[in-house]
Write a structure and sequence with these properties.
about 210 residues; alpha+beta
């Protein structure tokens, strides 16, 4: 079955998810903007040996820094993890396969995926979940662990936490995370590292 037909099903998903605030944002992606967070539902067609298969990821981008969200997510969770099946792969080789897969995905998103994103639709909720998880010593084993919600990379994690605390008015914690970025994660000679450090330095002056 062609990817054009899969795109049509994504449009149908957008209609189904519209009451929850999602809109179509490209041929395979839905988007919802909430305060300081852009949330996404993205269908990903397979390529090469995965041709005829597709999966679906939930992703988000923190926007508390005031920088427009790019096509790079701060974190991604495959919908399969929400039902304990690791990454979920669905078929669209035939019309029957596509119809069955679409029904499965629509049900999974409306009953589980949207609820998951609703649970992290504001910075305070996400930080509270992060802080609770940080009190444990268990290793991070799944992408649904809140300790990954601000980013897997340590530099970006502290950057996003810093701006999160800043918008919540917690200046002490914000300063702590800004300083961690500047002092521990700003040594690489890349423009994006320099830009990130500059953004943190400016934020420290403004607090």
């Amino acid at each position: 079955m062609s990817k054009a037909m899969l795109k049509t099903k994504v449009k149908h998903l957008a209609t189904a998810c519209e009451p929850h605030g999602f809109v179509l944002d490209g041929p395979f992606r839905l988007k919802r903007i909430v305060p300081h967070i852009d949330q996404f539902i993205e269908v990903q067609p397979g390529h090469d040996w995965l041709d005829g298969k597709f999966t679906c990821n939930l992703g988000w981008k923190h926007t508390a820094d005031g920088v427009a969200a790019e096509d790079v997510y701060d974190h991604v969770v495959n919908v399969g993890w929400l039902v304990g099946k690791a990454e979920l792969s669905m078929g669209h080789e035939s019309k029957a396969d596509l119809e069955a897969s679409y029904g499965q995905l629509k049900s999974l998103l409306l009953h589980t995926g949207v609820s998951f994103l609703n649970g992290i639709r504001n910075v305070r909720q996400m930080i509270e979940m992060y802080e609770d998880a940080e009190r444990t010593s268990n290793p991070i084993e799944t992408p649904t662990d809140p300790r990954s919600f601000f980013g897997v990379d340590e530099g970006w994690k502290h950057y996003n936490l810093a701006f999160g605390y800043k918008v919540l008015g917690d200046q002490d914690r914000a300063k702590n995370h800004f300083n961690i970025v500047v002092e521990q994660h700003s040594n690489q000679p890349f423009d994006w590292v320099k830009d990130r450090r500059q953004k943190c330095s400016e934020a420290l002056v403004s607090i």
